[in-house]
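Task: encode each sequence below as structure tokens.

Item 1
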Amino acid sequence: MIVSFAIVAFNEQAYLPTLLEDLKAQDYPHNKIEVLLIDSMSTDNTKNIMEQFKATTNYFLSVKVLSNPKKIIPCGHNVALDNYTGDALIRIDAHASMPSNFISKNVAVLQSGEVASGGRRPNIIDDSTPFKETLLTAEQSMFGSSFAPYRNSNKKMYTSSLFCGMYKREVYEKVGRYNDLLPRSEDNDMTYRIRKAGFKLCYSPDIEFYQHTRSSFSKMLKQKYLNGYWIGKTMGVSPKCFSLFHFVPFAFVLAIIFTSILAAFGHPLLSVLMWLAYSMLVLSITVIETIKKPLATNLLLPLIFLTLHIAYGVGTLLGLIIMPFWLHKVKKP
């Protein structure tokens, strides 16, 4: 099986070299791997790294350096779709790291009769400091963002989504391209369309790769806000591509607003009960996580969880408010 391996990157000079070394170390035959390196108009050394990799690596089937002039991620994915020649396509984030059997494990699933494969996605940090370890704990916690099966499930199953999955050519031939209106939720939309077309998404715990956690709290906060914001806007384009858990932070923010209004008008009971329940839950999780990983900075987990939840929920709320005006603007041409 010829595998097309795509990386879409913008200003990833810090992470790209390591990922390319991981690609070199793959145990799948290199003469059956087509490499697509897609630069989204980076302003740092990203494209030079890609060109150097192409110039110095001659044992892959081919290495192509391509440009994504529209810059946004789904357009980069579409550049890959326009240029890949393999039997299957896998694309991976530049913020990732992969073991040497990553491609071969995916191929094994496809050769067993599946059309789509994916696996576990544990988070890692760049360097170990107490606060970054705490951020990693927040990211990995079920109370943070680890409901999705592709993060930690130990069972092989069919799932509603795959993170950086490998898909046979027949999938894209039937489903088509990524929606370039959705720079943050393009995967949700694509996997929904794939399932709607009758294909199954096979999750295998034997497949594993690693995602770098955002290196600072401000970057993590921005990530959660934008994720929520694009969920709100995507509701006007592909409302069925999300599950209920995507809207839990949004419901939390609505509950804060509603109970605060009631409290302002002399009815504080619901507000007190809500905050009491939330506090007990977040403190319990903080204690559990601190027992597993004793760090003084874990005392910040309640504040980190609260801030991330509010940022995500506020993002969804604003996205929903802006969505009709945005749709009118993008559909007018």
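Item 2
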Amino acid sequence: MNFPFLMLTCLILGATYASASAQQKDSRWLEELLHAQASPLLQNILNKPDTFQYQIIYTRINRDKNNRTHFKNYYLNVDRNRYFNPASTVKLPTALLALEKLNSLTDKGIDKYTPMLTDSAFSKQTAVLADSTAENGLPSIAHYIKKVFLVSDNDAYNRLYEFVGQQTLNEKLWQKGYKDVRITRRFTPMSEEENRHTNPIRFVQDGKVLYTQPAARSNVTFDFSKAVHIGKAYYNWEEQLIQEPMDFTTHNNLPLDDLRQMLQSVLFPESVSAQQRFDLSPEDYAFLYENMPKLPFESNFPKYDTTEFFDSYTKFFMYKADKSKIPEYIRIYNKPGWSYGFLTDAAYIADLKNEVEFMLSAVIYVNSDGVLNDDKYDYDTIGYPFFKEIGEIIYKYELGRERKYKPDLSKFKR
């Protein structure tokens, strides 16, 4: 199809459906756009929403004459009641709340760079007293957050989870309006009770203890009334094949639209209500804007093998499917997750050369054999190509879209 004609068609459809309720979580305009440009692979996915359980949110961003942002979301097959395993996407709110908690402890003389030593006091807990990947050889909140965004490091998330605490983590998110979010566990084999217990922690500087956080137990009450079972079989932690669906009832939960909103609240805090914002300092925002789009080869501490941790290791949209290099003028601020056959990513993508920006969020389930924990998922053949093509279609549309005011993207330049 001729692309200018497609754009005109989409604009007309967009005007037709502009008044649709935001609660509908479906947009004929987005559906038409994707189908018009889709390859046979993508057409097959789009035509099988029950099989692939995909959800897609495209967020159009317009600027006014004062460079203020205005957002419009277009949804396809989005349903917050359809469970998907959020995997590493829960690391985003956990990192943000770790920074928020630190800002409540400034009177203790600590910050994100202060060495943080983790001890153990309960079953399955482990201590961390050093970090060879840090320049000073010591762990810190800042270093853990860097690793979370660079390569989605699981242990780094576990340490942030332990610092914030399960109860604070969930209650703070609920207070911000994310009522359906549930973060119940670390990413290591632990029981529900073990995950309620968090480690004693010390912040130290030059051998002096500045602040001690005692071991704690979360007493938060979760609503596990809705049973969630996925697949036809799974391997348990002992690598035994269990011939029944896997139970996700008590697992982490983070609806796609909430993940998108959290990302927007960090990158554009002025665009959301005060209640939804995280209590971050200007230095925190600068730190996040520097580290969220950073690629593994750009990091010296930690230093990564770029054969394994290539440019697009955590950048699903447009790039990960073929492990291609990301152009220097493209910035991707995102948090992906991959686990149990689910792939998820929420991203803000800025093209500094062409002055283009948009947000894109999606999830897909690619597990054709129905067995979980067997490491046989269709990530490479279906999942990552899905994200590549969705990203390319929206990016191409954005490159041709008329804007009354060009965005000033200087705050995202390095």
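Check on item 2: Residues 3-79+293-412 form one domain. Residues 1-24 have pLDDT under 50 and may be disordered.
End of task.
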